[in-house]
Amino acid sequence: MKFQIDQGIEILASTPGVLRSMLAGLGDLWITGNYGEGTFSPFDVVGHLIHGERTDWIPRAKIILAHGESQPFEPFDRYAMFEESKGRSIAELLDTFESLRRENIQTLGDLNLTPERLNFRGTHPALGPVTLGQLLATWVVHDLNHLAQIAKAMAFQYADNVGPWREYLTIFENQPVRREKS
Questions:
Q1: In degrees to the nearest 10, what's the CA dihedral of 26, 13, 7, 11?
Q2: Mean pLDDT across the stretch 4-31?
Q3: Contact by Cβ (8 Å): 136, 6
Q4: CB of 23 within 8 A of CB of 151?
Q5: How far is Cα 152 from Cα 158, in angstroms, rounded to an integer?
Q6: Closest C-alpha to 42, from 149, 139, 157, 140
Q7: Is residue 182 in some structural domain?
Q8: Could you give the CA distance from residue 134 to residue 87 in angstroms, rounded to a whole number?
Q9: Domain count, the chain
Q10: What CATH number is associated with residue 87?
Q11: What's the domain range around 140?
């Protein structure tokens, strides 16, 4: 499937509701559990998505449209959410994300992007030349990737409880079996 803005917006617009359905009202163990050292919890992921709404997708699209390849993007801090989310609840994060996403989808529509403009190029600090269309397609896939990551973190909380069914649950692929201390 070739990237089209209207199709991408379908996913981008649905993500806040999906997150709210998955996470609102759950206990802390579901929200803060991860699936191993160096992995994100659902709380971390929502904070990461908020940081992206503020500093990544729309700001980078505007850089491409205004400066092309002559002004590289600012590097994205993938871990900024650890400090930015301190002291906040998941409910606050979900509300913030929903508000920022709504504003960014409006801004995206206001850019009046044509298929030709999706071919405009910018410069990623690590990847080099990228197109606006690639940036926007990545935004969509980034959401889907993190929804899967949240599901994985949540599933992993019961990884030791599913017994022999584990071999049928692909969400646990490439994850070691944890042994509880006795």
A1: -20
A2: 97
A3: no
A4: no
A5: 10
A6: 149
A7: no
A8: 35
A9: 1
A10: 1.20.120.450
A11: 5-172
Distances (CA, A) of 3 to 7, 117, 133, 156: 7, 13, 7, 33
165 CB-near residues (< 8 Å, 6+ apart):
none
**DSSP 8-state secondary structure symbol assigned to residue 35:** S
Q: How far is CA 131 from CA 67, 116, 125, 128, 146, in A?
A: 13, 11, 13, 10, 22
Contact at 8 Å (CB) between 63 and 122?
Answer: yes
Asked whether residue 114 is assigned to any structural domain, the reply reads: yes
What pLDDT, in 10s, does the model give residues 54-90?
A: 999 999 999 999 999 999 999 999 999 999 999 999 9
Judge whether 48 lies within some domain: yes
Place of tokens 């992206």: 52
Kindly report the length of the chain.
182
pTM: 0.92
Biggest alpha carbon distance in the chain?
A: 62
Q: What are 94-143's pLDDT values in tens digits?
A: 999 999 999 999 999 999 999 999 999 999 999 999 999 999 999 999 99
**Residue 167 resides in a domain:** yes
